[in-house]
Amino acid sequence: MSNPVAQRRGGLFRMSLLSKILPSGNVFLDFEASSKKRVFEQVGILFENSHGIARSVIFESLFAREKLGSTGLGQGVAIPHGRIKGLKEATGAFLRLQTPIPFDAPDGKSVSLIFVLLVPAAATDLHLQILSELAQLFSDRSVRDQLAVLTEPGEAYKLISTWEPYAGF
């Protein structure tokens, strides 16, 4: 029997890390935010409510990381991320913005697909593996195209959480 969130290629069997860090309630379509700052403020509230970590801590972590260089990937995608003291395990949220916003992406395009990743302050290589999976996921044009038009958060959640990472070398 096949596991929908795993893939077998070249003898390797691998589970998607994204399926472990994205709660179904953290998928938002047609999210309203007029700027990067507003996105960070609103996800700060979201994670404050779900994890009990002050929104200001989340905002400041995301903003500080952004000052090091834009987390805009290009093709309308951004993956803002930050280390959060007191967070026990990595967590994320997916937002599809109602109106694309500037994000200083390398291609200069505005962003409408955002995956916010929060990791514990002492995170090891796990957060780099998650970022790698996110980059793989969003480099797939068919995934981006589907996420742009899906009408139900549950559909977007299913697409992201059952996505299968490439396990080859």
Automatic annotation (TrEMBL):
GO molecular function, one term: protein kinase activator activity
Ranges of residues in domain PTS EIIA type-2: 20-163
GO BP annotation list: phosphoenolpyruvate-dependent sugar phosphotransferase system
Domain of life: Bacteria
UniProt-recorded name of the protein: PTS IIA-like nitrogen-regulatory protein PtsN
